[in-house]
Amino acid sequence: RILSGFGCRLVGHDLSPNPGCVALGMDYLTLDELWSQSDIVTLHAPLTPGTHHLVHAQAIERMRRGVMLINTSRGGLVDTRAVIDGLKTGHIGFLGLDVYEEEEHLFFRDRSASVIQDDVFARLLTFPNVVITAHQGFFTREALAAIAETTLENVSAYERGEPSGNEVVPPPA
């Protein structure tokens, strides 16, 4: 909704198109179409075996040169080594990460007096066109209220013996 106010064409990819997004004018595309047509790619997906390293070397090659890639979902959606290669060649123009595949060893603790042992993460920090936050994207009043509400709804449904309306079940391998 916000981006449409800037005159952006909204495109997306999902196995189940969201009626709310369609109502805002979003066009649903194949992944290949999305990669090749997008100036900005933001990831909003659960991490499942099917989405692990969704952004990989071949996907990056299909993206527009100078693409802005933003991941606030799950670190495992991105093959970080492939992203580093894309940054080095300029194929990825900007990178924003709020999540990282091996973040449990980096985030949620004060590491200001420590040497970063993760060489891949340390390499990411050397790029001037990369912004990394420590898994803080959820930390808004709205997001925390939604998390609390969803948690309470899930507990209530469980107590009533009803299925959860938002359970994520990966497809069979």
Describe the structure.
The protein is α/β, with parallel strands linked by helices and 173 residues long. The chain has a domain at 39-136: NAD(P)-binding Rossmann-like Domain (Rossmann fold), CATH 3.40.50.720. Helices cover 31% and strands 13% of the residues. The chain is built from six helices and six strands, in the order E-H-E-H-E-H-E-H-E-H-E-H. It has helices at 19-23, 31-37, 57-62, 80-89, 119-124, 141-159, and strands at 11-12, 27-28, 40-43, 67-71, 92-97, 130-132. The strands form two sheets. A four-stranded parallel β-sheet has the order 3-4-5-6. The protein has a two-stranded parallel sheet with strand order 1-2. Helix 5 (119-124) links the parallel strand 5 (92-97) and strand 6 (130-132). The chain starts with 10 loop residues before the first strand and ends in a 14-residue tail after the last helix. The mean pLDDT is 87.
Q: What's the number of extended β-strand segments?
A: 6
Helix and strand run: EHEHEHEHEHEH
Q: What is the first-to-last residue Cα distance?
A: 35 Å
Mean pLDDT: 87
Strand content: 5-15%
**Helical/strand content category:** alpha/beta
CATH class of the domain at 39-136: Alpha Beta
CATH topology of the domain at 39-136: Rossmann fold
Described by the principal axes of the CA atoms, the overall outline is: globular
CATH H-level superfamily of the domain at 39-136: NAD(P)-binding Rossmann-like Domain
